[in-house]
Amino acid sequence: MILYIVILLSCGFISYFWRSGSSVSQPWVPDASVRQFAQRPLPTPPPESFIDTYTLPLRTSGRDIVDATGRRFKLASINWYGASDELFLPGGLDVQHRKTIAKTIRRLGFNSVRLPYADELVIRNPPILPHLLTANPDLMGLHAMDVLEACVQALTDEGIAVIVNNHITHATWCCGADPCDAGWANDHLGPLCRVTQTEDEWIQHWETVMARFVDNPRVIGADLRNEVRGVWGTMTWDRWATAAERAGNKLLQLNQNWLIIVGGTESGNDLSGARARPVVLDVDQRLVYSAHVYAWSGWGSRDGRFSKRPYPSFVRAMRQNWAYLVEENVTPVWIGEFGAPQHPGAGDANYWGNLMQFLKAIDADFGYWAINPRKPKDNAREGYSLVEDDWVTPLLDYRMKDMTELMRI
C-alpha cells in the first residue's frame, strides 16, 4: 500500500513539473509594437549618453554613478565575452576588425562594455592562434593579454566605457556545477581543480590585468567576480564581502578612480546581505553592486523561477534581493547580466516583460548578455545575441526595442 502511494505521488509530481515546463516553453507571438519596431531603422543613439561627453573621473552618489560635475552616467552596457572561454580572446576577431565591433556596439546605443576574462588567461597568457585573428592581422603573433588590451583600446577610442570582469578561474563557459569555479579561490579543493589559485593569487591576477589600464580613464571599473555561489550555493555574504574588500582596496591603490563592482551571491542574484553588512572600501564613493537576473533565476525558492512568476511576485523578489539599495538611494546597483533568446517561449517572454517593466520603473543601470552571435567552443549559435553573424547587422526584435527604450529613460 505504501509503495502504491509513493508511486502515485511520484507520478503526480512528474505530471505537475511536465505541465509546468510545457507551459513556459510554449511559443510567444510578438505584439504589433514589436513588429513595427522591426520594420524601421534602428534609432540613432543619443550622443550625450557616451563617456566621451562626460567629465571624468566617475564616482557614486546615492543610487547613481556620476561624473566630476555630478551628472549621472547611466550604465547602458553589453557583454562582449570570449576572453573567459577556451580560446582566450573576445569573440568575433576572425570576422570583423575590433574597431568595427566597437562601432557596432556604439551604433546599437550601448555606452559601456563588460569584458570578461578567466584567471587561466592571466596564468598562461598563451599566444593566440592566427586563424582566430583573420580580421585583425595586426594582432597576429600576440599573446592573450595583448589582444585583450587591444580590444579595450578599440572600445575606449570609440567613446565606450569598459568594465573588466573576472568571470571564471578555468577558461570555459560559465557557469556549471564545477566547484573549482564556484568562487574566487579554490586551493582548498586540492588536486580536484586543473587550475588552482589562492585568494592572494586571485588578487594578483587582478593587479596584472588592471595595471595595463591605469592610464586609460575610460576603463572605469572592475567587476570583481562573476556569480559567486560556493559549492551548491553555500557561499556566505560575509565571506565574499570580506574578499571583495581586500581585492577592491588593492585595485584602488593602483587607481583610486576605478569603480569597484561587487556582485551578489546565489549566482549573482542576492545582495540582501549588504543591508546589514555593506562592503566598505578605503576610498569613498567607489562601490557599485551588481545583480544578475535570468528567467531561471529564483529556482529553489517558494515562488519558483522568474519565468513563471506574476509581476507582483517578481517585484517582491527584486526588492528583497537588490532593488532596496536603489529605491532607498543607498548605492548603485548595475544589472550586469540578463538576457533572453531571439525566439522566446512563453516563460522567457513573461520573465522579460516583468524585468523590463521593473527596470524601466526604477531607471536601472543595466548590462545585456551578450553581443556575441557565436559561442567560442564549437562555434555554437548564441541565442541571446543582438547581432547577426557578421557582427554588424542588428537583430531588430523585442529585445532591441526594449534596450532602446531603457537607454532613453
TrEMBL record:
Tell me the Pfam families matching this sequence.
Answer: Cellulase
Keyword annotations of the record? Glycosidase, Hydrolase
GO MF terms here are: hydrolase activity, hydrolyzing O-glycosyl compounds
**Which BP terms does GO give this entry?**
polysaccharide catabolic process
- Which domain of life does the protein's organism represent? Eukaryota
> The Glycoside hydrolase family domain covers which part of the protein?
95-373
What is this protein identified as?
Endoglucanase E1
User: Family per UniProt?
Assistant: Belongs to the glycosyl hydrolase 5 (cellulase A) family.
SUPFAM superfamilies under this entry? Answer: (Trans)glycosidases
List the InterPro entries hit by this protein, alphabetically.
Answer: GH, Glyco_hydro_5
